Amino acid sequence: MEFYVDEKQHRKRRQIFKLKIYIGLAVFLLLLVGVFYAVVYSPLFRITRINADVNIEELKNFFSSRSKIAKFLGRDNILIWNNNVGDFLKQNPQIMNLSVEKNYFRREVKVDFQKRERFGIWCQQNEICWWFDKNGVVFEHAPKTEGEMIYKVDDFSERRLIIGNKIIKEDLLANLLKIFNILEQSGLNVRTLQIKDLSLQEATVEPVNILMPKIYFSLRFDPAFAMPAIQAIKEYGLNKIEYVDFRVENRAYYKIK
After folding, report:
1. What is the pTM of this model?
2. Which helix (DSSP H) or strand (DSSP E) does residue 6 occupy?
3. Which residue in 101, 146, 151, 111 sits closest to 127, CA to CA?
4. Any residues with CB less than 8 A from the CB of 248 and at least 6 apart, and which?
5. Dihedral angle at the C-alpha atoms of 49, 54, 59, 60, nearest 10 degrees?
6. Which long-range contacts (CB under 8 A, 24 or more apart) does 45-48 make?
7. Integer-rounded Cα radius of gyration of the chain
8. Which residue of 69, 75, 133, 163 shows the fewest CB atoms closer than 10 Å?
9. CA-based torsion, 16, 18, 22, 25: positive or negative
10. Residue 43's beta-bridge partner residues?
């Protein structure tokens, strides 16, 4: 048997099929234009409020400069804000952590952050001083201080620090903080250390008066063993000792005047 399809009917079906395709494309384009308008021009994604104590303008500039799309969407578009802020923290070392929380319904952005806390001052040979935190990161300029009210390191090496640098390596930093803790607990009323040469990995406490001896510490190992020796020397009489040397682990050497 042979079947014959009416040519007119076949042509009509083809026209209907093409029409459906054109209508589908038109609807898709309209939806695309609508989404584009909503994202770029409508107030739907415009931030109405930013809760932050940090410099908002710096944050806006940071997020809008991260890509061409972000720049096109604009600084006030909620879509460009996110928690990928590693570069911002590098540019602002005074901030330790920063998180972004977005409320799309209210079109609000909440920024939580943690500032670095001042632990001590690191002064270099060129008389430039920096505040550093317990992580050993220098994050802002500090005044050149006198006296023993603040933890301080006078660094006489040739190295030059810049904001964001670590004062010393992590393992040495841990022992440096422990030395400060020992000085605090010992009651010697001294908070300043001197580092003559970083390569030696040693720190020195210079006498603040004629009654106190010079004290040598090593940054290579835990100085906890020094505490009982300091107490014993205090009982013997600090004014009778010229220096105390803790640069050999678990050993205390001293010289009597």
Report:
1. 0.76
2. none
3. 146
4. 218
5. 40
6. 45/73, 45/77, 45/78, 45/79, 45/107, 46/76, 46/77, 46/78, 46/107, 47/76, 47/77, 47/78, 47/81, 47/107, 47/108, 47/109, 48/106, 48/107, 48/108
7. 33
8. 69
9. positive
10. none
* 3-state percent breakdown (helix, strand, coil) of the chain, nearest 5: 35, 25, 40
| 129 touches 100 (CB < 8 A) | no
Strand arrangement, sheet containing 95-103? 49-51, 108-115, 95-103
Q: How many Å apart are CA 159 and CA 32, to the nearest integer?
A: 57
Closest to 223 (Cα-Cα) out of 158, 174, 190:
174
> Using the 8-state DSSP alphabet, how is residue 118 labeled?
P
Q: Which amino acid is at 255?
A: K
Each residue's pLDDT tens digit in the chain (257 positions)?
Answer: 444 456 667 676 777 667 677 677 767 766 666 555 545 555 655 666 677 667 788 888 888 888 787 787 878 888 888 888 889 998 889 999 999 888 888 888 888 889 999 999 999 986 799 999 999 999 999 998 888 899 999 999 888 898 999 999 998 999 999 999 999 999 899 999 999 999 999 999 998 887 889 999 999 999 999 999 999 998 989 889 999 999 999 999 989 88
Residue ranges of E strands in 71-169: 95-103, 108-115, 120-123, 129-132, 138-142, 151-155
Half-sphere exposure of residue 115: CA atoms within 13 angstroms, side-chain side: 11
Look at the alpha carbons of 71, 76, 81, 86 in this order and tell me if their dihedral is positive or negative. Answer: positive
